[in-house]
Amino acid sequence: MNRTQLPTRSTSKRCRLNGDALLLVLILASPVLSAQDGDFSVSGVLAVGGHQGQGGRSWSEAGLGRYLADDDASLQAHLGVFWQPTLEWSLSAHLRADDRGSGDGIQTIGLVEASVSRHFFLADDARISVRIGQLFLPSTQEAIDPLWQSRYTLSLSSLNSWVAEEIRPIGVDTSWHSGADAEFESEFGTMLFAGNDSAGSLLAWRGFALHDRLAVRNETVPLPALPSLQDPLQFGDQDNDGARPIGRDLDGRVGYALHGRWGRSEHWRLVGTWFDNRGDRRLHRGEYAWDTRFSIVGASWRPHPEWDLAAEWMQGSSGMGLRSGPVFVDIDFRSAYLIASWSPDPRWRLSLRGDRFRVIDRDRTIAEDNDDSGDAVTAAGFYAPSERWRFGIEFIRTGSRHAAAASLGLPDETAGDSLRVEARYSF
Fold first, then answer.
1. DSSP class of residue 407?
2. What CA–CA distance (Å, rounded) separates 158 from 66?
């Protein structure tokens, strides 16, 4: 793909919703909020762990392995700040420090999420909320504890591992929430956003993974050292240091997402999400804007006070490069998981998760065949002697294949086992 496909100056300006400008609004709003009285809280997580894994070089080291590291000790910390000076206004931010992973663009410390919210109260205690910032979509049924932490396992499912890596739009989310006395708890919203233009590149080149590392703003996530990415005749104009999914907008086009939730709190819940970044598939300053869209349907159910069931299903497509040119990428992808979790009392929790994932390479160009498929079974156990301390152990067995592994001189079987232990302190 040559640089003649770059948009003109006037094109790059149209409908630009600049992510840096939105975060600047967030920073400038902070003194306004701080000048008022209200609720202020700080929460956090400190976790020390160890991991032994098999299945090839980790994806965090530009390999095709499913896990974050092979044999390593780890340290991670999350810090959350929440401020509600009045009932109408609130501010939140989530910072992460994580020493796992390597590569020139990997960041140890960074911003996961940040927003300013304005709430408008309606009759019957219903409300409309407008949030501005860098946001997770409200879809996950797994990472439901504060700071986007899983309640059930140490790792996230393949679906939510990818969301943690690549999906963090920067924009304006407007949602309607039912009142507290409504028979069914409901929420419907829409989001207009910038950024997330390279979302989909990790799935196309590497496939799905299983981990709990939350990518941060402007972080460069390594891509596999595939021959086509090193070939100047194929992707010579593209930066080859990795993907930067959470950062500046590339093509000046506004993406959108729709989301909804319906159910009865603490009993059952149904959720649905649609995401479309409207990427123009062209090259911009060494990065491609990927055209990525997907839907997620999720559900949770508590049939008994000791049991929790949760599931999500995702299906989507992604691509880059003009189809009329010699080099382009088109993939379909899907992923699903089911969790069953038993907690006989607040100190103990045992969970079992089943995963299935697939990436289908549809372009069939001269680049590698990047078909990717697999399934995984995860068993995890937690012991929490107090509200602040939690000790966990997790075992994952994955069976998977990645067709492009042969181009790296590796077997296409990328399966392997993972064993993790962790001690966690929350405040």
1. G
2. 9
Q: Please, are residues 141 and 311 in contact by the beta-carbon 8 Å criterion?
A: yes
Question: Do the beta carbons of residue 374 and residue 65 sit within 8 Å?
Answer: no
Query: What is the domain partition of the chain in residue ranges?
Result: 3-426
Residue 402 pairs in a beta bridge with 372
Beta-bridged to residue 150, according to DSSP, are: none
In three-state secondary structure terms, 66 is coil
The structure tokens 């075992």 sit at 395
Degrees to nearest 5, angle at CA 274 with 270 and 278: 170
Count the neighbouring beta carbons within 10 Å of the beta carbon of residue 4: 6
Q: What is the pLDDT along the chain (427 residues), one digit of tens a residue?
A: 333 233 333 333 333 344 444 455 455 455 554 555 689 999 999 999 998 887 777 887 778 888 887 667 889 999 999 999 999 999 999 999 998 877 667 888 999 999 999 999 998 889 999 999 999 999 999 999 999 999 999 999 999 999 999 999 999 999 999 987 888 999 999 999 998 999 999 999 999 999 999 999 999 888 887 877 776 656 655 656 678 889 889 999 999 999 999 999 789 999 999 999 999 999 888 888 999 999 999 999 999 999 999 999 999 999 998 877 767 899 999 999 999 999 999 999 999 999 999 999 998 777 788 899 999 999 999 999 999 999 999 999 999 998 888 877 777 777 789 999 999 999 9
- Helical ranges in 131-231 per DSSP H: 158-166, 201-205, 227-230
CA dihedral in degrees (19, 22, 28, 30; nearest 10)?
-100
Helix locations, 50-176, DSSP H: 158-166
| Helix, strand, coil content of the chain in percent (nearest 5) | 15, 50, 40
Angle at 380 between CA 375 and CA 382, to 5 degrees: 160
CATH of the domain spanning 3-426, picked from 2.40.160.10, 2.102.10.10, 1.10.10.10, 3.40.50.300: 2.40.160.10
Q: What angle do CA 32, 34, 40 make, to 5 degrees?
A: 140
Cα separation, 37 vs 29, whole angstroms: 15
DSSP-derived pairing of the beta strands 287-288 and 71-84: unpaired
Nearest to 66 by CA among 346, 295, 409, 402: 402
